[in-house]
Automatic annotation (TrEMBL):
Pfam family, one: ADH_zinc_N
Lineage: superkingdom: Bacteria
Signal peptide: none
Native species: Shivajiella indica
Residues in Enoyl reductase (ER) domain copies: 10-322
Gene3D superfamilies according to UniProt: Hotdog Thioesterase, Medium-chain alcohol dehydrogenases, catalytic domain, NAD(P)-binding Rossmann-like Domain
Official protein name in the record: Zinc-binding dehydrogenase
PANTHER family referenced in this protein's UniProt entry, alphabetically: QUINONE OXIDOREDUCTASE-LIKE PROTEIN 2 (PTHR43677:SF4), SHORT-CHAIN DEHYDROGENASE/REDUCTASE (PTHR43677)
SUPFAM superfamilies noted in UniProt: GroES-like (SSF50129), NAD(P)-binding Rossmann-fold domains (SSF51735), Thioesterase/thiol ester dehydrase-isomerase (SSF54637)
Amino acid sequence: MKAILCTEFGGPELLKYTETTEPIVGEKEVIIQVAACAVNFPDVLIIQNKYQFKPELPFSPGGEVSGIITDMGPGVKHLQIGQRVLALCGWGGFAEKVKVAADRVFPIPPFLDDITAASTLYTFGTAYHALKDRAQIKEGETLLVLGASGGVGLAAVELGRVLGAKVIAAASTQEKLNICQQKGADMLINYEEEDLKEKVKELTSGKGVDVVLDVVGDKYAEPALRSMAWKGRYLVVGFAAGEIPKLPFNLALLKGCSVMGVFWGRFSSEEPKQNQQNIMELLGMIHSGKIKQHIYKTYTLEEAPQALKDLMDRKVVGKAVVEVKERLETRDERLEGNKNQEARIKNQESGILEGEGRKAEGGSGKVVFRSVGDLKAYEGKSLGASSWTMVSQEVIQKFAETTEDFQWIHVDTEKAKVLIPGGKNLAHGYLTLSLAPKLLYEILPIEGAQMALNYGVDKVRFPSPVFSGDQVRLNANISKLEESPDGSIKLFIHVEMESNNSPKPVCVAEMISMVRF
């Protein structure tokens, strides 16, 4: 396969476009045929051996890719060959194929093209984590973005606007500032021609800024810190201008402000649940048109060193992307037409009534939810009960094999006959819980949604066991709804599962789902 290889540390001019061996998949890894790979500042550092991660020579730079899975290890269960994905590989992306740990690979929604998919997580992920999780920026606060025309900076300008902040974009040329203004910046500072501290003072009527997002460091950091308002938050994201600043921290004392590090890569590993929530919200904003990646230029694989050079020379506004392959048709897309046709035929046969809003299926009385209003109308109301389903010993055995939890009370039928009252094996509590989504779909049918995701479960308990051969069914009601900034809603659904052999519920939980129409 073709790849850009770093065989010695140094500048982009030392990189080589050459033939190299294809990667070999490991137990919990996937091989991705790369469609596109974003160009990020860590790529510039890693080829100079200045990054915190230091791969052995030779290696290919490029840490953020989109493409199609061509192979995967036996330990990978949540992905499939032929699936279109984006991945955070760290390095290796400037190549026709890359090997990535499966937990760093994410399915691409149908509405996201390869270029956008490969250029979103690093920049928007970092900026959103910085503003939402670290600064906890509030509507009406003032945000100063240093290096506002770069990938993370421009993402922060857009997200600041979406989150209701007044955004001051600071960059080095008028051309760059014009892009920032198009993305929603309220005020502009050319910090190559204007005094940063004095200009901030003028723009804020002497109050200062509530949040600084700094991706450049160097000589711009101290005047920005001096421009903080009382109890401001200074977000340290990177040092694109070169030097790591040595700040007089008596300023933090005098202003009562916080200086916060922003390391999105570690955050995504340390707090995967919160990171996943952020990603879902960002995808919602992209789909609704609230944010959009600004692509400076696309390069061929052979031109990847030039892309890195343009980034180093601060020519790139927004994101540069290396397009490795034209988009390939995935297996899902090949089948999509057939699936859509089958769904239409099924709907016609089942007599689902067409039209806006919540409708009952012909003759059955079942409610179908087609809008946020439909769901709100059922807040606090019962969704009814599902049909009964049997928990057989075969199901219990398969669950044990999948989870590798082989407690004898679940799988040893001979011992159960002797030691368990009634002589039957017990279903694992988590097996009982895992049946809830299947049964919930039956009583909460949602149509026309752009996204419907079982997000999690809260406050679960198992008042009574389920025995092999028992029948169970689900009763549920929508306890509350919460609307998110991306236009999605979070459903909190109280569920109780009953068994035909127990006077008590066998599972009581609050399920959480995310839906966007």
